């Protein structure tokens, strides 16, 4: 039987260690690495002391089964630290505690901080109490009885009380002295120190328990400092670091680059969906934790770098934005067994990414082609998660002709070892306006290389999202403000005409359609400045 519990760690950075380095390492490497293991760690958060005592910082992790912490899946994390982690943690006084959960009670309106937006979780108070026992027979039972039958019940009457949990030294922590630990959570505005709280600490039963059964008592108070997600997201502490503190993980899947004189901080990492798909993402722009976020959904066969030129313009013109880009399902290897993607699945992938990054609502979502359909589906299905959207060069429904064309393209990709390269040349020449091909050879070659690098199986199953979807009926109920954009010569002008047709039947019909001249299927790539001029009024 599983024994749930908690790993909690107190930390005090030593003089000489930059707090930015300490926080950036913990927030972008140490914590997320553990939250990427949901079978072990359910939640993780950091607290900062409010009582003036040291250690200043506390991290807590809810563990599904304490026995797992003795197994290589976890112990290898500590045994094989990155050089950056080893350097940083060597300058921090660290004490780890392992405790088994014994009981828990919570207020009717309690919500775990992991499920709250940062703004609502901010300021949550944690009171930590640990006691040792006198060498008296039955001491633990008597203390527990008092806790459960009197003390905890009185604490529930303290204004702002949210949750109380009782733990004892874990059975896996062999040799550690027995300690009873209680954690009490309160809202930022609470009655700690008030009459109800004082009453809970001034009863005859409490006096008897303390005199007969308790040894030492420790008490600390903390305020919530940071909540981990499985995706690192802390640009605030990354940006001020010197260039020498740039970091690349051993698997090269996570990289953090501090700001320079010419470029802002960049954070690249990945999250994993419930079906095992790894989604790489890139976070940059405004470093404030509460900055409005704009996300980009790329087209089939391309990567998040298809937005590079446009994002450079956006960062200059809208420095208020935090910018999120990610690779759509199908760009890379996909989970076994392979299953066809759907537009709804792709919208769900984005929702999962936002959840891991603790982004509760996008200020804007921009997508093109398959990403445009994903964007439209996301606005339809998750209207509370996005304020506005820009959907580019997409169709509202599939057709038999398009399905047949995609099947032919799969045949090209699978027809030879260099099938993806062959498909890339055909695809880009079809996508781009003829003037782009003639006048921008470097951009054309770069896009061909980007398409050719797509995973073959990913393409085969990813393109099937465009085979059997129809959003026409759902579009009538659209409630999120949107903008349509199309390249003037996409499909030799056929796609802009199609978009004009379903624009009028989407939502209340107020969506505008903007046309980017001298552009085909990827106007933000072919003509980034003209694309900006088409969307700047909306963003």
Automatic annotation (TrEMBL):
It comes from the Eukaryota. It comes from Sporothrix eucalyptigena. This is AB hydrolase-1 domain-containing protein. Keywords: Hydrolase. Residues 306-532 form the AB hydrolase-1 domain. InterPro entries: AB_hydrolase_1, AB_hydrolase_fold, AB_hydrolase_sf.
